[in-house]
Amino acid sequence: MLNEREIIATLEMLRNENLDVRTVTMGISLFDCASHDSERFIANIRAKIMRLAGTLVDTCDEVGLKYGIPVVNKRISVSPIAVAAAGFSSAEMCRIAGALDELARQLRIDFIGGFGALVEKGFTKGDLALIEAIPEALATTDRVCSSVNVASTHAGINMDAVALMGRTIKRAADMTADRDGIGCAKLVVFANIPQDVPFMAGAYLGVGEPDAVINVGVSGPGVVKKAIDRAREANPDLDLGRLSEIIKRTAFKVTRVGELIGRTVSDKLKVPFGVVDLSLAPTPNVGDSVGEIFQSLGLKSIGNPGSTAILAMLNDAVKKGGIFASSHVGGLSGAFIPVSEDLNIAEAAKNGHLTIEKLEAMTSVCSVGLDMVAIPGSTSAETISGIIADEMAIGVMNNKSTAARLIPVPGKKAGDRASFGGLLGEATILNIPDDGGSAGFIRLGGRIPAPVHSFRN
Amino acid sequence: MKKIVLFVLGPDRPGIIATISKVLFESDCNLEDVSQTILQREFISIVIASLNESADEKIVLEELRSHLEPLGLYVHLKTMSGSPVLPQHVGESFVITTVGPDRPGLIAGISEVLARHNINIANLKAVSRVDQQPPHYITIYEVDIPPFTDFHEFRTALYARAKELTLDINLQHREIFEQIHQV
Q1: CATH classification code of B92-181
Q2: Which of A167, A182, A226, A290 gets the highest tally of CB atoms within 10 A of its CB?
Q3: A215-244 b/e with 16+ CB inside 10 Å = b?
Q4: What is the ipTM of this complex?
Q5: Host H or E run for residue A395
Q6: Are A138 and A172 in contact (CB under 8 A)?
Q7: What is the pLDDT of residue A5?
Q8: pLDDT of residue A23
Q9: Which segments of A232-287 are extended strands (E)?
Q10: Distance of residue A2 Cα from the nearest chain B Cα, in angstroms
Q11: Do B177 and A66 touch (CB under 8 A)?
């Protein structure tokens, strides 16, 4: 017999603490769709995606009903288009993006990821064509997401790619100037991108992955916050060691839910189960915020001194609890601090508690990086590249994934508000010191060598 | 061997199970299954025991009554019938939870929907939360849903009934609770 306290506790997590499965993402390899003719390639990917993911949304909804746990987003990640469609021009790449967008609409998928390239060591013709196509592809589609990996611990940092991505981000913002540069909200620059991320905008299916796979992204910042609040109320003397244990246990529970839902969806669709990404991913809703956890742990606001230490503890406790709960953990797995997507973090940025410098420091211990950071539209491409380079260096040197999703909001300046709608949220534009001081460094180009600790062979 | 079912009800106090088991032991009965629970201050226990064909259950009952009735306990004993009445479906276990203001007819309303869909209640627990205003009533049903049940039709009927009763209801597969709370 089940324990009634456990049943009531689960109900509370579900009702009041936003326990859900944030995303079930089906990875689909497009390598066997290759063709010399782009129309044929598009027909092949359409047939394959429809065949594998035709019932993805209905299956997720059905499984969600059975367990009483909603699957909030259903998504698809595909092989990096720069590889799968390597022979095509940038105009053809844009048509492929259009076809992916249309497929996502038909399948009622909210995002499809993988319009990306892996260029940490250098460019192929396909990589260059794809990066060239990104601004237009993101301006003319709603559901396509793009990620470009420009650095890795093994390869170092491709500074030519960092420079190119600075210019690409500027163009993507300009082409969606009427929507606060929303194109950039669907574009992320990575170091050490995992091959199995289910979360957007970074989701893609790596080249070492199976033909099709189900990856699950769990969430639950609200559940963690409430668990901390309850524990502190019951015992005000709890210290950080004990509180970290509570976070760990909570992450365990949340991950178990994701694992169960993921495996059930995978069984029903007869597609192998990949990983659970046990990240704390916030949404712009009250009670579903990572920033609020910092307040529950004694800070007035995220961004106050102490924030990096809290984030380090939080990230580590989430990983520990999650790893025990799941047979295969992957993706980013940690705490996200996306500024516009988290009401509390957005508020901290607005009130001046959180600056770009503090955010960067915090990304050295979190699982993503500078995420959904709105910056002044006048920020130069070289300065954006400088910020990306710093972020990539943190990832490369610490042997972890880091990313930059920066949105230079056209026509707006620091302190103005930018709004991206829905899950992408809204945020105050952060001040970026931009006196052109990074340009000389960015122009040098080349590749920053891999760090000594990458040579483990 | 034959089996008896023993039912004991009355005000709770230490030593009830000790008395029951001592009498059964001395009557050459073998305890097979025992369940006991306490609701508020009332003790309830159901015991299934086996005894030799030659033994007389009337004597066992008299012996039990002589020990338990002075403690204010009601004792009932019956011979266990052979085959189970229930069809033995291999169904799936779900948990239904309802939360709402206490009023008469809540369990009657929900269990009618279950009975109509041929869904058996394996466990039922109802708890009054008098600490909340208005006082809340939480019921937890563990049920077995047979494979031939139209899940969507049942779910719709259940949620509609809960709405009529102004109950907040949740229907979830049992596995979710096991996964979350059991290592």
Answers
A1: 3.30.70.260
A2: A290
A3: bbbbbbbbbbbbbbeebbeeeeeeeeeebb
A4: 0.79
A5: helix A381-397
A6: yes
A7: 81
A8: 94
A9: 273-278
A10: 8
A11: no
Q: How far apart are CA B154 and CA B142, in angstroms?
A: 15
Tell which A residues from 260 to 319 touch B, by Cβ distance under 8 Å.
260
Whole-angstrom distance, CA of residue B172 vs CA of residue B162: 15
Give residue B166's pLDDT band: very low, low, confident or very high (50, 70, 90): very high
CA distance A251 to chain B (A): 10
Torsion of CA A172, A174, A178, A180, to 10 degrees: 70
Q: Please list every residue in chain B whose beta carbon sits closer than 8 Å to the beta carbon of residue A65.
A: 155
Superfamily in which the B2-79 domain is placed by CATH: ACT domain (3.30.70.260)
Are the CB atoms for A406 and A350 separated by under 8 Å? Answer: no
Query: Taking a C-beta distance cutoff of 8 angstroms, is the pair B63, B137 a contact?
Result: no
Q: Would you state the pLDDT for residue B83? A: 61
For tokens 């973090």, what's the residue?
A345
Nearest to A247 by CA among A217, A226, A275: A226
Evaluate if residue B84 carries a pLDDT over 60. Answer: no
Domains of chain A: 26-191 (3.20.70.20), 215-446 (3.20.70.20)
- The per-residue pLDDT for range A34-51, each reduced to its tens digit, is 999 999 999 999 999 999
Q: For residue B20, which amino acid is it?
A: I
Contact A146, A102 (CB under 8 A): no
Collapse the DSSP code of B136 into the 3-class scheme (helix H, G, I; strand E, B; otherwise coil) and give the result: strand
CA A197 to chain centre: 8
Contact state of B125 with A4 under an 8 Å Cβ cutoff: yes
- Residue A402 is predicted with a pLDDT of 96
Chain centroid offset of residue B99 CA = 20
| pLDDT per residue as tens digits for the range B23-80 | 988 888 888 888 988 888 899 999 999 988 888 889 999 999 999 999 999 999 999 8
d(CA A367, CA A372): 14
* Residue of chain B whose Cα is closest to the Cα of A251: B180
Average pLDDT value for chain A: 94
- Rounded to the nearest 10 degrees, how much is the dihedral formed by the CA atoms of A170, A172, A175, A181? -80
* A369: nearest Cα among A344, A343, A334, A342: A334
- Cis ω for the linkage preceding B134 (within 30 of 0): yes
The strand pairing partners of B76, in sequence order, are: B7
Query: Which chain B residues are Cβ-neighbours of A9 within 8 angstroms?
Result: 181
Q: Contact A67/B175, CB-based, under 8 Å?
A: yes
- Residue A278 β-bridge partners: A218
* Span A294-300, average pLDDT: 96
**CATH 3.30.70.260 occupies which residues in chain B?**
2-79, 92-181
- Which residues of B touch chain A, with CB atoms under 8 Å apart? 95, 97, 99, 123, 125, 127, 138, 140, 142, 151, 155, 168, 170-181
Question: How far is residue B68's CA from residue A437's CA, in Å, rounded to a whole number?
Answer: 92
Q: Can you give the C-alpha Rg of chain B in angstroms?
A: 20
Residue B182 has pLDDT above 90, yes or no: no
